[in-house]
């Protein structure tokens, strides 16, 4: 028999979400209903089978503001994977009708700041809004190996990597740099994916840091203030190479294996926030060489870069081991029905109708597994 627990600022079984989660025995199935309200909480949820249902995306809001560059008590930095607002692990999790956000701010000042860390074996997000800047949504698992010491500090740093199955239905996800990233098999249906406008905040951010006598620009800050002489191969995940042109962001940064499905976006709207320059948003760049991300029958606006996907460390860096591509892309706000893909990078795949059907079939298997 499934447990039902009510969370409300007044009159519920619990007044905080974390208290309600803690009250659920691991092996019990439970539904936690979260009333309208603003919950300033950092959530850690790891249960066998749990559902969290809010009162709506504009009514139930979970928010926190941890960030990667934050200095901990021992003098180390928090790092990406301890910055989450909500961590969902365990067997199966279903999150519905709420907003989860990381309010730390611009990644050029604070570094990565995860809103949702999705790590359950089966993850189902339905009508959920996830907002942040750099690294909004992490679709676990982590890559097999880190590139720099302690780069993976967090809930799963010592655990064996296992493939997760994730489904996002009618969700809104916003961010800018690598804001949907990880190694999951993840399907996104009927979602709205929006890249922030970084152009109109970038000088304020960097000047503010300098005038306040804070740290000298590093990482992506440095890429804004100089044409770094280091070779592209030295760039790591928190840096953007702006030597070629200004980049508002990268929607995906996948790291799965070639035999996995990777990220599949179907019938989604993909674009930039108001103010984003035309051609300044990339559909992705590979966090690891075998990254896989495809966009099927999506609608995109003119902020999407003509090259479509970027290499790691430079727009035209060759990435022959990736599987990146589109099929049936519709150009929003134009009399031209389908987007012009003639300027895409040479290693971006031409997905045929038969290839798209095969990918759809595999994606449908994930959806069935998650929803059954």
Rounded Rg: 20 Å
What is the CATH domain class?
Mainly Beta
Average predicted local confidence, pLDDT: 90
Helix content: 10-25%
CATH overall fold name: Pectate Lyase C-like
Helical/strand content category: mainly beta
Note the run of SSEs as H and E. EHEEEEEHEEEEEEEEHHEEEEEEEEEH
Outline type: globular
Ranges where pLDDT stays below 50 over 5 or more residues in a row are 202-235
CATH homologous superfamily, by name? Single-stranded right-handed beta-helix, Pectin lyase-like
Could you give the count of β-strands?
23
Q: Main beta sheet, described? A: 23 strands, parallel
Give the percentage of residues in beta strands: 25-35%
Features:
single chain, 23 strands, 23-stranded parallel β-sheet, Pectate Lyase C-like, 372 residues
Offer a concise description of the structure:
12% of the residues lie in helices and 33% in strands. The chain is mainly β.
Structure description:
The protein is mainly β and 372 residues long. Helices cover 12% and strands 33% of the residues. It is globular and about 60 Å long. The two termini are 18 Å apart. The model is unreliable at 202-235 (pLDDT under 50).
Task: Describe the secondary-structure layout.
Layout: E1 3-7, H1 17-23, E2 29-34, E3 37-40, E4 43-53, E5 60-64, E6 86-102, H2 107-110, E7 116-118, E8 122-131, E9 137-139, E10 165-169, E11 172-175, E12 177-182, E13 185-189, E14 192-195, H3 202-211, H4 220-225, E15 249-254, E16 263-266, E17 269-272, E18 281-284, E19 292-296, E20 299-300, E21 323-327, E22 330-331, E23 349-350, H5 353-371
Parallel strand pairs: 1-2, 2-4, 3-5, 4-6, 5-6, 6-7, 6-8, 7-9, 8-10, 8-11, 9-12, 10-13, 11-14, 12-15, 13-16, 14-17, 15-18, 16-19, 17-20, 19-21, 20-22, 21-23
């Amino acid at each position: 028999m499934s447990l039902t627990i009510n969370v409300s600022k007044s009159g519920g079984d619990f007044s905080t979400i974390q208290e309600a989660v803690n009250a659920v025995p691991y092996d019990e199935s439970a539904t936690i209903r979260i009333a309208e309200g603003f919950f300033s909480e950092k959530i850690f949820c790891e249960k066998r089978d749990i559902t969290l249902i809010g009162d709506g995306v504009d009514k139930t809001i979970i928010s926190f503001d941890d960030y990667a560059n934050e200095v901990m008590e021992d003098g180390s930095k928090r790092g990406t994977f301890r910055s989450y607002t909500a961590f969902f692990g365990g067997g199966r999790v279903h999150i519905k009708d709420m907003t989860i956000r990381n309010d730390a701010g611009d990644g050029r000042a604070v570094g990565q700041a995860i809103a949702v860390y999705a790590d359950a074996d089966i993850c189902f997000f339905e009508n959920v809004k996830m907002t942040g800047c750099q690294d909004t949504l992490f679709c676990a698992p982590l890559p097999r190996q880190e590139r720099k010491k302690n780069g993976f500090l967090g809930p799963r740093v010592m655990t064996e990597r296992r493939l997760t199955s994730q489904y996002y239905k009618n969700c809104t996800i916003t961010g800018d740099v690598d804001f949907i990233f990880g190694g999951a098999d993840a399907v996104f249906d009927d979602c709205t994916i929006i890249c922030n406008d970084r152009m109109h905040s970038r000088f304020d951010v960097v000047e503010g840091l300098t005038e306040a006598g804070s740290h000298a620009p590093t990482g992506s800050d440095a890429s804004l203030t100089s044409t770094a002489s280091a070779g592209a191969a030295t760039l790591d995940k928190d840096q953007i190479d702006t030597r070629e042109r200004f980049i508002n962001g990268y929607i995906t940064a996948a790291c799965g294996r070639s035999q996995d499905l990777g990220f599949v976006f179907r019938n989604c709207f993909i674009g930039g926030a108001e103010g984003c320059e035309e051609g300044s948003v990339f559909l992705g760049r590979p966090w690891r060489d075998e990254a896989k991300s495809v966009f099927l029958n999506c609608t995109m606006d003119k902020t999407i870069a003509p090259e479509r996907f970027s290499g790691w460390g430079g727009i035209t860096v060759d990435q022959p081991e990736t599987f990146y591509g589109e099929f049936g892309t519709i150009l929003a706000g134009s009399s031209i029905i389908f987007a012009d893909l003639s300027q895409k990078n040479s290693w971006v795949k031409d997905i045929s109708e038969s290839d798209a059907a095969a990918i759809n079939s595999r994606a449908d298997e994930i959806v069935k597994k998650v929803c059954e």
